[in-house]
Design a protein that fits this description.
By secondary structure, the chain is an alpha/beta fold. The chain is built from 9 helices and 15 strands. Bound molecules: NADP nicotinamide-adenine-dinucleotide phosphate. NADP nicotinamide-adenine-dinucleotide phosphate binds next to loops.
């Protein structure tokens, strides 16, 4: 019999809803506790979602001896700080994207992982889905020939005033929130890391970017162009271009149970159907395998570090008007 891992939600963030279902459904996990900055918020949340324990501070959750795994769904500027605190309190951590806001923060998390022997991984849920694995298989099989260019976009209209995504001091901005997905997707496919970037941004009311467009050159010569925005209508796609064909992924970041890819080769366009499971179950299973079976997490710390490095360089490029080497 495998051991049950007790999970705790660090905050009452909206995104928790996506994790609650898989945590309740998995045979290897039990959702035991939630924490909020206020006891009354934690109590109300625990009662709404039938969570046995409610803590009125984040410290109380990470020091709860019954908890094995913390799900860090705090605003971006608190990701590294609380991931490190939780690791040092003896917990494993699944941390929301972006994993951190600087490369130094990722390195500090990596040092805490080394020191404690606990697992920390970034919650890039799309990485575990069958569609993503299929896209990677198609690219690696050489069906597109040699990879040349990747385009991607993730945008939506952010209409909630006061949302954490607007506020620069909380790690806000569209590139951190949604631009991180096409960048991560491209890096996963290319098999080499970016060496040079150029970016433009439009700054929003909270100081973070409300629209970002960027270009990335990879070490093996592949080029990438992407955009992210809180002002554009909802858009989400990846287009992958090789010397012998093009693959279009119309729903790359939040794939569902039934998905379609379009493979264009010469004059032929083939629709490939891909079945998938519950999107957020993948990251829960991956954490369980990492903790209980000692498997390396699918999203490694090096991978998270490289994604953060690209975003930091793109932001610097947008601020200075110059291309940036990585
Ligand atoms: N993977 C995905 O599909 C996905 C989707 C959406 C969001 N995310 C990520 O999940 C994280 C949370 O996003 P969200 O939209 O769910 O956030 P949210 O609803 O605004 O919740 C953030 C929570 O953080 C706590 N908090 C601590 N300090 C805060 C501060 N200074 N201001 C505001 N809240 C503060 C609050 O909890 P208490 O009041 O309970 O302390 C709040 O409920 C972000 O990192 C985001 O990038 C991931």
């Amino acid at each position: 019999m495998e051991r049950n891992l007790n999970w705790g939600l660090l905050s009452t963030a909206k995104i928790n809803r996506a994790l609650i279902k898989p945590l309740n459904a998995s045979k290897r996990t039990r959702l035991l506790a939630v924490a909020s900055r206020s006891q009354s918020t934690a109590d109300a949340y625990a009662s709404e979602w039938k969570i046995p324990r409610a803590h009125g501070s984040y410290e109380a959750l990470i020091n709860d001896p019954g908890i094995d795994v913390i799900y860090n769904s705090l605003p971006n500027h608190l990701h590294a700080e609380w991931t490190i605190k939780a690791l040092r309190a003896g917990k494993h951590v699944l941390c929301e994207k972006p994993f951190a806001l600087t490369v130094d923060e990722v390195d500090a998390v990596a040092a805490a992982v080394k020191e404690t022997g606990k697992v920390a991984a970034e919650a890039f849920m799309y990485r575990h889905h069958a569609q993503t694995l299929k896209v990677k298989e198609i690219i690696d099989s050489g069906q597109l020939g040699s990879l040349q260019l990747i385009k991607g976009a993730f945008s939506f209209k952010l209409e909630r005033e006061g949302d954490i995504r607007w506020m620069l001091e909380l790690g806000g901005g569209s590139i951190w929130d949604v631009g991180c997905y096409p960048i991560s997707y491209a890096r996963m496919l290319v098999g080499a890391e970016p060496v040079e970037v150029f970016g433009w941004q439009v700054t929003g009311p909270g100081g973070g970017d409300e629209t970002f467009t960027g270009q990335i050159r990879f070490a093996n010569g592949v080029h990438m162009q992407f955009d992210s925005s809180f002002k554009f209508p909802f858009r989400s796609y990846m287009e992958i271009v090789g010397t012998e064909g093009t693959l279009i992924v119309p729903n790359p970041f939040k794939p569902g149970k039934n998905n379609s890819l379009q493979l264009n080769q010469g004059n032929d366009a083939t629709i490939l159907k891909v079945k998938g499971g519950e999107l957020y179950m993948g990251e829960v299973d991956d954490m369980c395998d990492a903790i209980l079976k000692d498997n390396p997490p699918r999203v490694s710390l090096e991978d998270s570090r490289a994604n953060v490095a690209v975003i930091v360089a793109l932001l610097k490029s947008a601020q200075t008007g110059r291309n940036m080497a990585i």
